[in-house]
Amino acid sequence: MLAVVAATVLAGSGCSVIQVTGPYTVNDNQGGGDPLNKPFQRMIAIAPQPGWGPEDTIRGLQAAMAAYADDPSVLAGYLTPEARAKWTAAGPVTVIQDAYEVAVPPPRESETTVKVSLKGHYVALINEDDSYKPTAGPWERPFELVKMPEGYRVSNLPQGLLLTESDVARAYRPTNLYYVNRSTQDRLVVDRVRLRLKTTETFAQTVLERLLQPPTEALRGAVTSSFPAGTKIESIRSGEDRVIINLSGPLSSLDLTATTTLTGQIRNSLSTNEIAKGRTIEIVVDGETYTTDLPDSDDRWLDDDVGDSAYYVSKGAVHYLTKEGRGGAVAGAAGEQRDGYDHFAVSAGPNPLIAARTSTGISVAGIAPEGVWQEVIRGDDLTPPTWNRDGSLWTYDGKNGVLLKYDPSRNRVEPVEVPEELDKLDVNQFRIARDGVRVAVTTGEETVQIGALTGEGAGTKLGNLQFLTTTDTGNEIRDIAWRDDEHLLVLVEGTAGQTLNEINVGDGETTGVPLKDRLQSVAAFKDQVLAEVATDNGNKLMVLNQDQQTWTAKIDSDAGTPLFPLG
Amino acid sequence: MPPTKKKRTRRRTLRQILGGVRRRLRRAAGRTRSVWRRSLQLQVVTSTLVISVIVVVVLGTFLFQQINKSVVESSQRSAASEAFADRLQIADALAPETDDPAKQADGGKQGSGNALDEVMDTVTGSGENGSEKRYEVLVLNRTTPGQSRASGSVVADNVPQSLRLTLKRNIDAYKFDDVSGTIQAIRFRGESQPRLTYVVGGIVHLTTNGRTYEVYHFFPFDDEEELLSNVRLAIVVVGLGLVLLLAAIAYLVARQVVTPVRLARQAAERLASGKLDERLKVRGEDDLARLANSFNEMAANLALKIHQLEELSQVQRQFVSDVSHELRTPLTTVRMAADLLYDAREDFEPMAARSAELMQAQLERFESMLADLLEISRYDAGAATLDLEPVDIRDVVLRAIGDSEALAERHSTRFELRLPNEPCMAEIDNRRVERILRNLLFNAIEHGEGRDIVVTVGADRDAVAVAVRDHGIGLKPGEDTMVFDRFWRADPSRARTIGGTGLGLAISREDAALHGGWLQAWGQPGEGSQFRLTLPRNAGVDLKGSPLSLVPPEIEMRRTWRTAMTPVLLPASADGADHDED
């Protein structure tokens, strides 16, 4: 009886509803997994309304095109049966600016067909390989509408989808995919695509499905994939602290190289797109664990073997750049003050070599006390030397129109095949990116093209050349520098002043870097950007701050031509 | 007509089956009822079970409804407020006119698809730093192209029809502030199962350009559903456990009470069956212990009283036996003297001669009464023994009739004999059975009012029986057992014409009992009476029935014809009462 009374009193006197408990292990099974998806919004297309005029119908048609991938049925409602039979969504997607105009002629009572034209400005094309190519200029296409009892219907329209910038921003995501450098097989190469978000699958699945496909045109032949043909993605699940990718196909877990490469491709393709970041990735093939990749495992797939070494040139001698600024001269001939050597380039690795251009050719010197300059390539119209990550030295002989490759281990110079059109152009700069695949070529003074080293071994050649950027006539591209795998810094000397642009070589996305002083040259490696500024009392070395907006002097005088290994 | 026949047969079969089922059900119900009525424990446990089930169901339903209400209501409240905030945001972003100069600067974008995209990015969390929202949003503008957006996999068809119509009505009636909600299971694209979803529909109306947006929020309610189903499961399990626990408690408590009561009942039954030394065990001092004490005291007192009565009865019997014996010696002398007087009566004066005759007659009666008293006291003392021999009962009957014929003639009564043709052999004491039959015949003659007396003999495998039927005044209800009492007289005012002692039937009954047989009487006022003697063929074998009916066949037949109410047949006697007799 007493116990009952005590229990009643305790229950009634406001004993806490939630008990205070000691620390215990929390198993975060619910919602702790990676969502594998990104929230997004979609255009909802509505069927043409009877009260709409030609302009509303065209705008409704465009909205239906934006929603076409989700629901193709609405678009069909805008078309006459004939147009429906003729039209296809295949082909590149045209992207125009949001503010487009629909020019409707004055209505005439007698005519049932109306010819309208849609005027706007080109923004880009999304090709069928998902690559995004920025374009510019006005865009205009005619459309033909027929007035039917239920309203206007489009009877004639250009093939392919027409989207606005907003549609693309809403439905597509810029995505980095990673493939393997074909010749060295030790480095991942980024391929930038625009992927359409799908309601029926997670973004992770969309990314991996695309990764199974070949790379975009720009990297075709230059990279390989570790996914054997016939590989399929069965499912992607998000577990407690891991992401489980279930594959099927002819994958052998005995091939350790393939396993690590595949893991590297998947890990980087997901985590650079903010998926499965910091989570264990478990790859399952046909129900059996293939490999498990811990999030903190050492990933050397994007490592350039460069360390934190940086150099600058003071009075013709190459010096180390330290955190404090000025460092000592490098050992050997390169560290001695000597005229006639310019456009230095440093190779990667523990024992880097320095290459420099002279009036007679390209010379190479080791950074060692006994290092002396040794001319390895002869020529009087060579582009500044550039090192590839495989240790070879490259330059373009403008006079003979040939790309030359010097292999220090064999001490031999070999010509490399280039596209024919390059012969006709004036190649000023030739820079191999640190991934060993992408190549930036300055042709003339106004254009930068991006290519790739395709093939391997003796069959290596320069290919896939694509236009990246151009400047107005009269402007001059003064310097280019690879910042990382996908960004190229382009310094343009114009009549109105200098501009420094950071261009994404994958989709042409351009970011301007504000300048205060006139720059002579730039060098960059990931988040470090160095520039040489000419002042009254010689040159000084500037560094771009972390905010990417302001510059600070690193070395105030007698320092120029900043250098990072490779790039 | 064979088909009809067949049909009829089948119908009858069906009816028979139904009848069988009904009978079986009735039997089972009867058994259950009997078990129910006999077991206090079952009654207590069942009542507790029923009451606790009702209480648990009522409380559980109430509790679940309360929890359900609070969970769903709170989720709905928070959902409605989130939806409201989103609608405000959308309305604010889409309004072309704004006082914010910063927004006015890029006023070209206001009201365009971009503004909608921007606000949808915020609302759906699909912007740069947006985090995934727990709900989906659908913005529908059914009149302006390119002004409809959705998040996730929601499409316009996912909006429940009723909600869409409600919003349409609100728009038509310019009720732009009205918000509607509905909870429905909706199957979204790419999902195999419908999900329980709370859909909130509101309207954003821009007065400046007249555009109207239907804004739908889809809040998944599957978490709530799971929570509530877990709660319901918990309530059901706990309720079930509680009911079982209560039943177990009731069982234990009832057992504590019922077991001593049951023991007391068993003890009382044993006591009633004559085991007077039966006592209950007394444990503790509670009410049941006191009951046991009282029971034991009662049993002790009862035993004492019975013992005293037995002693008293013994003394009485001894007294009767002694008196009878003691009376015989003077009676013999008196008899001899009376014989002398009777033989010399002719020499007396008529008066004295008549007195001598009377004295002789009364002395004979006195003698036979004394003989009967002695006989009965022998029974009481348990000294009576049987002198068994196989006898044909028909011979015994004939001898008894021969003995009674003189008396029958005096009463102008005739006997009607119904004897079987074959011999009816039985192991009996000839003398005693003959005495029984004589008694029955004398009795029938005395009460037969001169009408015929039917004597029937029957036999079967186990028993032989003799029935003596008279057509006199009969017996009143209850008298059929009293006739065997000592000195019982149907009408005390009636004189004994034959001069019976009043002990004849009592002795006959003792004789029958000594054989392991029955002596039973039947009678109805105005219908006469019938006495039936049933004896086992082999001495010492228990009787299972009688070859003859106790009720005379003609009466039985009349009763069947009338199909009227059966006259109440009371058990004929104590020793034959347990048997099923017709």
Beta percentage of chain A is 35-45%
Describe the largest sheet of chain A. 7 strands, mixed
The third-level CATH topology of the largest domain in chain B is Beta-Lactamase
Number of domains of chain A: 3
- Uncertain runs of chain A are 28-32
At CATH's second level, what is the architecture of the largest domain in chain A? 6 Propeller
| CATH architecture level-2 label of the largest domain in chain B | 2-Layer Sandwich
Largest binding interface between chains: A-B, 33 and 34 residues
Total DSSP E strands of chain B:
12
InterPro entries (chain A): GerMN, LpqB_C, LpqB_N
Organism (chain A): [Actinomadura] parvosata subsp. kistnae
Domain GerMN (chain A): 204-294
Protein name (chain A): GerMN domain-containing protein
Task: Explain the layout of strands and helices.
The complex is a heterodimer of chains A (567) and B (582).
Chain A: H1 2-12, E1 41-43, H2 54-66, H3 72-78, H4 81-86, E2 93-96, E3 101-103, E4 113-126, E5 132-134, E6 138-148, E7 151-156, E8 162-164, H5 165-171, E9 172-181, E10 188-196, H6 203-212, E11 223-224, E12 232-238, E13 242-248, H7 256-271, E14 280-285, E15 288-293, E16 311-314, E17 317-321, E18 326-329, E19 342-346, E20 353-357, E21 361-366, E22 374-378, E23 386-387, E24 393-397, E25 402-407, E26 412-416, H8 420-424, E27 427-432, E28 438-443, E29 447-454, E30 461-470, E31 476-482, E32 487-493, E33 498-504, E34 510-513, E35 519-525, E36 528-535, E37 538-544, E38 551-555, E39 560-563
Parallel strand pairs in A: 2-8, 13-14
Antiparallel strand pairs in A: 2-4, 3-4, 4-5, 4-6, 6-7, 9-10, 9-11, 12-13, 14-15, 16-17, 16-39, 17-18, 19-20, 20-21, 21-22, 23-24, 24-25, 25-26, 27-28, 28-29, 29-30, 31-32, 32-33, 33-34, 35-36, 36-37, 37-38
Helix pairs in contact in A: 2-3, 6-7
Chain B: H1 2-38, H2 40-94, H3 101-105, H4 113-124, E1 136-140, E2 149-151, H5 161-172, E3 180-186, E4 195-205, E5 212-220, H6 222-272, H7 287-343, H8 350-380, E6 388-392, H9 393-410, E7 415-418, E8 425-429, H10 430-447, E9 453-459, E10 463-470, H11 479-482, H12 504-514, E11 518-524, E12 528-536, H13 553-562
